[in-house]
Write a structure and sequence with these properties.
It catalyses: N(6)-[(R)-dihydrolipoyl]-L-lysyl-[protein] + acetyl-CoA = N(6)-[(R)-S(8)-acetyldihydrolipoyl]-L-lysyl-[protein] + CoA. The chain has about 550 residues and is an alpha+beta fold. It has 13 helices and 26 strands. The chain has helices at about 85, 100-105, 115-130, 215-220, 230, 235-245, 260-270, 290-295, 330-345, 360-370, 380-395, 435-450, 525-540, and strands at about 5, 15-20, 30, 35-40, 45-50, 55-60, 65-70, 70-75, 130-135, 145-150, 160, 165-170, 175-180, 185-190, 195-200, 200-205, 350-360, 400, 405-410, 415, 420, 425, 430, 465-470, 490-505, 505-520. The strands form seven sheets. Strands 17-26-25-24-20-23 form a six-stranded mixed beta sheet. Strands 1-8-6-3 form a four-stranded antiparallel beta sheet, with helices on one face. Helix 3 (about 115-130) crosses helix 4 and helix 11 (about 380-395) packs across helix 12 (about 435-450).
Length: about 550
């Protein structure tokens, strides 16, 4: 059956999106990971993927026109398929852009009439959709493919207003709120707390009471809805199962006979363990090898006096614990970090350039600047400013490899990597070359605080053209970093360390900072990267040049 593609929620304040560009036209084949359009929101222009496969049958919003969040912008299905029932009762927010074209595509060989049962199903679905709104997992970041429901703020049967926050969703970048933009009763919840749903997958249905929710779910190939009581208390059976008593294994000594495997008896004898003190976990309380391995003796009674001539025998070793491990589920952020950096490391041919920077003047300059600056300037702020100015002079480093062409960015957006509990995120300082040191410091501090509190929005961590990763404050002298796509380079910053250097034949102590530039050799040549580092070194060793 044909599937609708709706205007996704791309920021927490978005209510509608403007179609900036269509990358597909009616009749084109669409794959699940194809970018079908670019949408301009109140915060940024982002790509929209359909996450469905088939033929693009319908485009509901012309380029330059807006559609409400959750409104239908396109339909994908089989060639010649009748998609019009999906539009009944829907307000797409704009006049159809390509319905005539769709009719032309479908006008060729006419499809055979569908069976009566299918017609009835389609009619039931269309009728249900008139009285209900399907809430789908929105695309909350440009790299998101699925989201995990952290918490539901409503339960089945509750009344919902269009501006109510239905749920909190954990993406690969942050935890964000999902608004349904629909009035009515919450009829169905399709994803339990802690479970994930693919982008564009149904997570809830809101509408009039009595709406045939099962018809909508059947059309989507989803599981039928359960009664409200069942959805409200899914853990009842699990709780009962958890409360069931475990088999008692205390009958191994019954009638004075010890039930134990030969291996367990032999092992107990070797370890000096009284087999009768061991609790069995096997069938009928039978003692097995693992019971002996895991046995921890009770507190030993006071030692009895022994003949003075006999030396005390060494007590057998008994481990205080047992072997074990803990499996930690991956967060969405960690999954995407693993995927994107693996692709970067193995697809982009990395090479590395290292340079030492004398930070003596930078340290003096920072001290003087902080005496008058409204915010505290860090060395990392100075590195970001120096990188931004250097990129202006070396635009080849401020580029992105696009497969069959290189994109030279005319703006300088510096990403600054931040380690948080769930992984690594890169807030972006936009137009860093045009900002003062105090402006960079204030913006960076705000972004770092939002990152640690999981309050970053998509516009805060997207659009970088170059990245800085600083581990110097953690005592790391130098390291190499993996390029952060879509950048062509990343700068790894080590700590400042007192080092003996030779200057004009004299040995002196200087404060040295080691920098390592990782470059994508497809877009940045060695000489280009070397010249960039030389310029960067000049700015940091003589910071006054950054103020000119």
């Amino acid at each position: 059956m044909a599937e609708v593609i709706r205007m996704p929620l791309l920021s927490d304040t978005m209510t509608e999106g403007v179609i900036a560009e269509w990358h597909k036209k009616v009749g084109d084949q669409v794959k699940a990971d194809d970018v079908i359009a670019e949408v301009e929101t109140d915060k940024a222009t982002m790509e929209v993927m359909g996450y469905v496969e088939g033929t693009l049958l319908y485009i509901g919003v012309e380029k330059g026109k807006a559609a409400k969040v959750n409104g239908i912008i396109a339909i994908v299905g089989k060639p010649g398929e009748d998609y019009k029932p999906l539009l009944e009762g829907e307000n797409t927010g704009a006049a159809p852009a390509a319905a005539p074209a769709a009719a032309e595509k479908a006008a060729a060989p006419q499809a055979a009439p569908a069976p009566a049962a299918n017609t009835a199903d389609t009619a039931a679905t269309a009728e249900a959709l008139k009285n209900a709104t399907v809430i789908r997992m929105p695309l909350l970041s440009d790299t998101m493919t699925e989201g995990k429901i952290v918490a539901w703020n409503k339960k089945v049967g509750d009344t919902v207003k269009s501006d109510d926050v239905l749920a909190e969703v954990e993406t690969d970048k942050a935890t964000m709120e999902v608004i349904g933009y629909a009035d009515g009763t919450l009829l169905y919840i399709g994803v339990k707390e802690g479970d994930a749903a693919k982008v564009n997958g149904i997570i809830a249905i809101v509408g009039k009471q009595g709406t045939n929710v099962d018809a909508i779910l059947a059309a989507e190939g989803a599981a039928p809805a359960q009664p409200a009581a069942a959805q409200a208390a899914p853990a009842t059976n699990g709780a009962a199962a958890a409360a069931a008593p475990a088999p008692v294994a205390e009958e191994s000594n019954k009638d004075g006979r010890v039930k134990a495997s030969p291996l367990a008896k032999k092992l107990a004898e070797e370890k000096g363990i009284d087999i009768q003190q061991v609790t069995g976990s096997g069938d009928g309380g039978r003692i097995v090898k693992k019971d002996v391995d895991n046995y921890v003796p009770a507190a030993a009674p006071a030692a009895q006096s022994a003949p003075a001539a006999s030396a005390p025998a060494a007590a057998p070793f008994v481990p205080a614990g047992q072997e074990g491990y803990t499996d930690t589920p991956l967060t969405k952020m960690r999954q995407v970090i693993a995927k994107r950096l693996s692709e970067s490391k193995f697809n982009a041919p990395h090479f590395y350039l290292k340079i030492d920077v004398n930070m003596d003047k930078a340290m003096d300059a920072r001290k003087a600047i902080n005496e008058i600056s409204p915010v505290k300037i860090s060395f990392n702020d100075m590195v970001i400013k120096a990188c931004a100015l250097s990129l202006r002079l070396h635009p080849d480093v401020n580029s992105s490899w696009m497969g069959d062409f290189i994109r030279h960015n005319q703006h300088v957006h510096i990403g600054s990597a931040v380690a948080i509990e769930d992984g690594l995120i890169v807030p972006v300082i936009r137009f860093a070359d045009q900002k003062t040191l105090s402006q960079i410091a204030a913006e960076a501090k705000g972004l770092y605080d939002k990152a640690k509190n999981k309050k970053l929005q998509p516009q805060d961590f997207s659009g970088n053209t170059f990245t800085v990763s600083n581990l110097g404050m953690l005592g790391i002298d130098e390291f190499t970093a993996i390029i952060n796509p879509p950048d062509s380079a990343i700068l790894a910053v080590g700590g400042i360390k007192e080092t003996a250097i030779v200057e004009k034949g004299q040995v002196k102590i200087a404060n040295i900072m080691k920098l390592t530039l990782s470059c994508d050799h497809r877009s940045v040549d060695g000489a280009v990267g070397a010249r960039f580092l030389a310029t960067l070194k000049g700015y940091l060793e003589n910071p006054v040049t950054m103020l000119v």
